[in-house]
Amino acid sequence: MPPLSLPPDRRAYRIATVFGLGDRVLAPGTFAGSLPAAVTWLGLTVLLADPVLLVGVTGVLVALVTAFGTWAAHVEAERRGTGDPGAVVIDEVVGQWLTYAVALWNLPAAGPRGIVVFVTAGFVLFRIFDVVKPWPVRRLEGIPLGVGIMVDDLVAGLMAGVVLALVAPHLVGPTG
C-alpha cells in the first residue's frame, strides 16, 4: 500500500489516531487506544480525588470525545477509503472511558491498590468485549463511517462497565 498523503485535516487525523499513535504501534486498538485511555483515567483518579467530580469529568470527557471522535473517525475513514481503519483508535479511548463511567457508581471507597485493580479489570473487560464483539456489538459495526466506528465501542464499553460494576465490590475492598 502506498504511503498515506498528509491528511487534509490534521485535526481529524490527530483526534482519530490519538496523535498518530494508531499508525505507529502493533495492535493499535490496545496499545494506542485502550491502554493510553486507561493510564490517563488512572491519572484522573489521582488528580480528582472527589468521586462526584470524577464521575462528572469522566461523563464530560465521554460526551466530548464521542462528538469530536465521531467526526474525526468519519473524516479519517473517508480519507483512507475504508470503513473502520485500524489506526483510528479514538473509539477505543471513548469505549474504555465509558467502561469506567458506567462502573463508578458501584466502586467502593478504595485506596491506590484498589483503584489500580479497578482500572486494570476495566481495561481487560473492555478489550474482551471489544475483541469478541458479542451481540449487538458486532451488528453495530455495520453502521457506516464515523458513527459505526464509534458506536460498537461505546456499546462494548457499556457492557464492560456493567460487568465491572458487578465485580468491582468483590475485587476492590474499602481498604483496597
Descriptive notes:
By secondary structure, the protein is mainly α. It has one domain. The protein is built from 7 helices and no strands. Helix 1 (10-16) crosses helix 3, helix 2 (28-47) crosses helix 4 and helix 4 (90-103) packs across helix 5 (112-132).
**N-to-C SSE series?**
HHHHHHH
What percentage of residues falls in helices of 4 or more residues?
55-70%
Q: Which ranges are low-confidence, i.e. pLDDT below 50, for 5 or more consecutive residues?
A: none
* Class from helix and strand fractions: mainly alpha
Shape: globular
Number of strands: 0
Note the gap between the termini. 49 Å
DSSP strand content = under 5%
Properties at a glance:
about 180 residues, mainly alpha, 7 helices, globular
Question: Which secondary structure elements does this structure contain, and how are they paired or packed?
Answer:
Layout: H1 10-16, H2 28-47, H3 51-80, H4 90-103, H5 112-132, H6 137-140, H7 145-171
Summary of the model, kept short:
70% of the residues lie in helices and 0% in strands.
